[in-house]
Amino acid sequence: MKILLTGGAGFIGSNLARFLLSREECFLVNLDKLTYAGNLGSISDMIGHDRHLFVQGDITDRDLVDSILYRYTPSAVINLAAETHVDRSIDCPADFVRTNINGTFTILEAAREYWNSISSKEKGTFRFIHVSTDEVYGPHEKGEDLTEGSSYAPRSPYSASKASSDHLVRAYHYTYGFPAIITISTNNYGPFQFPEKLIPLMIHKALRCEELPVYGDGSQTRDWLYVEDNCRALLSVLFKGRAGETYNIGGGCGKTNLEVVRNICSIMDTLKPRAGRKSYLDLISFVTDRPGHDKRYAIDSTKIQKETGWKPTENFQDGLEKTVTWYLKNQTWVDNVTSGKYSMERLGLGRPVKEGNK
Q1: What's the structural domain count of the chain?
Q2: CATH number for 54
Q3: pLDDT tens-digit profile of 136-147?
């Protein structure tokens, strides 16, 4: 099986590439632009692998995407290429429109035309997997968890751009019969996540005994999904999912931001005690909330579990300890990915992102 994976040098993408190569007899073409959040250090162990080909490029480059499709003739495209950080979308929304909307359109058009050129048998097994986020549904304060049939109500430039790309993917299925599937996952965490996101940022700052900034009162609630569980879900959808369907992928583990930070501090107290045995909990500080910060996301993953047999296997405490341990052992990776590109500064206050941090 040949697969085109976009965004494969980013957080979920690099984990998925590693997961696929270790479990499936597939040839993987890994296309990534290598922006600030995607880097070769995340896939260095796969460079030179005889079933992994890395191509540096942009999904908005139609000629490049066409050349990959017709040269390597994949039987699946997994689209993970995206700008993903809410705070950064507030400061620089244009990048999110360009990649998440225009980029998705470009690769959809290219993949559709390629799909039309292959044999009927190949058409029947081809899949286009588009990876999205639970933020497209908007906040969900009370009541039952949201299902795949729930209305979209994005509240940030990031979630609006992802919602737009989802609508394009659905339109291509209903208009052209294109065999696309959408997955909507909750907050992923684990190794190789760029340290602008909550968990790696808190680990990084704790190691330097810096204040641990918690937005507002820290009561915002998210469902957390260990990245390898998401990789297994994507694989199950690829082989067992139905074309034209959407599948929610959740960890079934709702935690407030403050709970997450406190858990990180407790793990750090055990694995990397501070001088004088002071607790990292002392470093927690509450800062001005970001504009339009959604209070709670909650989705129902019953559909994917019933149709494919997938379910999350990693409990949050064990997954978080694995994650903290990985970052403690891989500070060189953190230093390399943040050198000159992102210095842990506060984003999401509506100020344009500095050129050096794009």
Answers
A1: 1
A2: 3.40.50.720
A3: 999 887 767 899
